[in-house]
Amino acid sequence: QVQLVESGGGLVQPGGSLRLSCAASGFTFSSYRMNWYRQAPGQERELVADITSNGGVTKYADSVKGRFTISRDNAKNTVYLQMNSLKPEDTAVYYCYAPYVGSNGYWGQGTQVTVSS
Fold first, then answer.
1. Structure confidence at residue 108 as a pLDDT band (50, 70, 90)
2. pLDDT value for 57
3. Are 5 and 109 in contact (CB under 8 A)?
């Protein structure tokens, strides 16, 4: 079955960096675009970054543009989110999402990112 497993979250000081990973299985990873979303307490889940199936085109939310980078390794069935210059407002649960797999897409379980001094 389809599985998306995130890792790499944690506690980091403002200005620090983290790299999130999402390992995919159960579908032809290289054929599908992938997304990273995040959800802060009391807020709606928001799209952070998007990458096409071959990695050729990426898009970002305005709030993370220039600080976050989405990438993928199709040989490893993994999508990454490199997060630099982290701010307290980046604190959220980060989710990997495959929007066009199956009828409703698939979500990972999420990984907590906390930015605090």
1. very high
2. 96
3. yes
Residue in the structure block whose two tokens are 């989710």 = 95
C-alpha span between 29 and 7 (Å, rounded): 18
Provide, rounded to the nearest whole percent, the portion of the chain with pLDDT above 90.
98
Task: Please provide the DSSP assignment of 43-87 as one string.
Answer: S--EEEEEE-TTS--EEE-TTTTTTEEEEEETTTTEEEEEE-S--
In whole angstroms, what is the distance from residue 38 CA to residue 17 CA? Answer: 16
Gap between the Cα atoms of 112 and 107, Å rounded: 15
Contact criterion met (CB below 8 Å) for 11 and 116: yes
**What are the pLDDT digits (tens) for 22-47?**
999 999 999 999 999 999 999 999 99
Which residue type sits at 72? R
Q: How far is CA 95 from CA 26, 104, 116, 117, in A?
A: 18, 15, 20, 23
Task: List residues bridging with 8 in a β-sheet.
Answer: none
Residue 5 confidence (pLDDT): 97
